[in-house]
Amino acid sequence: MRRVSLIGITIVVFAGVIFAQFGQAGDFLRFGAGARSLAMGGAYTVLAKNADALLYNPAGLAGTERWELSLTHAQLFMDSRYDFVSFAYPLDLKSGVG
To answer: Residues 16-29: pLDDT tens digits?
Structure first.
């Protein structure tokens, strides 16, 4: 009986380690836009004050100071491509459109 209890406790304790997984299905299909944001590992939400803000943080368009055009093209696997085009144009002191 003691051995069965010990095996049961061991299974319960190590179940988290056995079934632990990192990431999500399809993570390899998620791409960013712009060299700066990709170099930062996608941690670009707060700093997005250019045309790439359309993807990361649309409220960042208010911080644009001049018009910008961003083009991203990536040739992936098996004849698949990833293209991203964004345009940002400042309107007033703290507003912009993209």
So the answer is: 666 666 666 766 67
Q: State whether residue 88 is helix, strand or coil.
A: strand
The domain locations on the chain are: 48-98
**φ, ψ at 3 (rounded to 5°):** -65, -40
Length of the chain (residues) = 98
Q: Across-strand partners of 31? A: none
Specify the 3-state DSSP secondary structure of 97.
Answer: strand
The mean pLDDT value for 74-80 works out to 81
Distance (Å, whole) CA 86 – CA 98? 7
Give residues with Cβ within 8 angstroms of 60, minimum separation 6.
48, 49, 50, 53
pTM given for the model:
0.58
